[in-house]
């Protein structure tokens, strides 16, 4: 048994300290970034935010909407092969990831899609990225798809971030347990404070010329800003994008003044009872549910939420004097607020 005594922090534990700036307006900052990928050699530029590959969130409708903002979507893996092939023939697919797990059925479906249309962005998604099986699978997919951008995870420590980059991942997905409908920490006791995980994994990935995607834990636009400040290259969102027209959750309606009005939408984790009943016939006897099902308020088109998120990031950049989004980590100083100790750390 080992106890680590180093300070580990979540988003709620810090604020970003403002700095003197010559910027006069939020319109003077650039929230887009350009990337070149280590293994594929390809390039991408846009607003580095990704809708999570949850079946309610990672929808084709969401991908089409977010593409208009230069943002990305990781499609959920439960679409039919023929539907995926049709989507990846669309222009919006340039900002979308094809998602799959590590089963042979997953890989065979991917191959069926790839035979019909090129797939250049792949998200390899498992709850536990620490198994040798997963590392081997990342290497297998890389060898078979040298031209593809591969995002793989999830992990929360530098050593496994390095292992996944060396196995062929261009982007490592960071986060175990921070999601709003994830109960992994409660059910297993396993996890890692998300802000510290981003800092440590980003340092490891960047040392090898890889990138990281912060997955989970953001509940307000300020958390997205904190993730970028901690070194995240992309931020993946689930709950913050739930409840919109582009989602595929069940909608609850109420009668108001003689009209049927949408008021709430179902949102659940992909390891919840709801998801496992839907796709696996129930929770297997050897495991427990590690997700929950909730209702979120109906929120209309996702465009309004994207404007809030991007506006919050722009405002953060003016507070710290960052003209470009890639400058944010270098301009960020976090102030610890969760303790009586007034600790300041950063650059």
Overall pLDDT score:
92
Integer-rounded radius of gyration: 20 Å
| N-to-C span | 34 Å
Number of helices: 11
How are the strands of the largest sheet arranged?
4-5-6-7-8-9-10-11
Account of the protein in words:
By secondary structure, the chain is an alpha/beta fold. It is built from eleven helices and 16 strands. It has helices at residues 60-67, 81-87, 104-114, 132-144, 158-167, 184-188, 194-207, 221-230, 273-280, 302-320, 328-331, and strands at residues 14-16, 33-36, 43-46, 49-51, 72-74, 96-100, 121-125, 149-155, 171-174, 211-215, 234-237, 251-256, 259-268, 293-297, 333-336, 344-346. The strands form four sheets. An eight-stranded parallel β-barrel has the order 4-5-6-7-8-9-10-11, surrounded by six helices. A three-stranded antiparallel beta sheet has the order 1-15-16. Strands 12-13-14 form a three-stranded antiparallel beta sheet. Helix 2 packs across helix 3. The longest helix has 19 residues, at 302-320. It is globular, with a radius of gyration of 20 Å. The model has no long low-confidence stretch (mean pLDDT 92).
List keywords for this structure.
alpha/beta; 11 helices
Task: Draw up the topology in text.
Elements (H helix, E strand, L loop, with lengths): L13 E3 L16 E4 L6 E4 L2 E3 L8 H8 L4 E3 L6 H7 L8 E5 L3 H11 L6 E5 L6 H13 L4 E7 L2 H10 L3 E4 L9 H5 L5 H14 L3 E5 L5 H10 L3 E4 L13 E6 L2 E10 L4 H8 L12 E5 L4 H19 L7 H4 L1 E4 L7 E3 L1
Parallel strand pairs: 4-5, 4-11, 5-6, 6-7, 7-8, 8-9, 9-10, 10-11
Antiparallel strand pairs: 1-15, 2-3, 12-13, 13-14, 15-16
Helix pairs in contact: 2-3, 5-7, 8-10
């Amino acid at each position: 048994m080992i106890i680590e005594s180093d300070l580990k922090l979540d988003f709620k534990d810090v604020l970003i300290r403002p700095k003197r700036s010559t910027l006069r307006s939020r319109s003077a900052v650039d929230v887009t970034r350009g990337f070149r990928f280590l293994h594929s050699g390809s390039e991408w530029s846009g607003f580095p935010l990704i809708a999570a590959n949850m079946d309610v969130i990672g929808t084709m409708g969401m991908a089409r909407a977010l593409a208009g903002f230069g943002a990305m979507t990781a499609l959920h893996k439960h679409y039919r092969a023929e539907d995926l092939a049709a989507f990846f023939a669309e222009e919006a697919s340039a900002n979308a990831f094809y998602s799959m797990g590590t089963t042979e059925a997953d890989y065979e479906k991917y191959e069926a899609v790839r035979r019909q249309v090129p797939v250049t962005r792949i998200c390899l998604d498992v709850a536990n990225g620490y198994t040798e099986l997963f590392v081997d699978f990342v290497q297998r997919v890389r060898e078979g798809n040298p031209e593809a951008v591969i995002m793989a995870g999830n992990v929360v420590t530098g050593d496994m971030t390095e292992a996944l980059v060396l196995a062929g991942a261009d982007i490592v997905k960071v986060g175990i347990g921070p999601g709003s409908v994830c109960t992994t920490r409660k059910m297993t006791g396993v996890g890692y404070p998300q802000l510290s995980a981003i800092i440590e994994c980003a340092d490891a990935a960047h040392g090898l010329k890889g990138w990281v995607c912060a997955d989970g834990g953001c509940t307000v636009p300020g958390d997205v800003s904190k993730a970028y400040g901690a070194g995240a290259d992309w931020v993946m969102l689930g709950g913050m994008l739930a409840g919109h027209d582009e989602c595929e959750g069940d909608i609850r309606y109420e009668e108001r003044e003689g009209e049927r009005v949408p008021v709430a939408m179902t949102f659940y984790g992909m390891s919840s009872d709801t998801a496992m009943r839907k796709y696996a016939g129930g929770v297997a006897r050897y495991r427990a549910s590690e997700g929950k099902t909730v209702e979120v308020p109906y929120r209309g088109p996702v465009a309004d939420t994207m404007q809030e998120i991007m506006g919050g990031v722009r405002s953060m950049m003016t507070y710290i004097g960052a003209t470009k989004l890639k400058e944010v980590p270098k301009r960020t100083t976090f102030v610890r607020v969760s303790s009586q100790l007034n600790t300041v750390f950063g650059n």
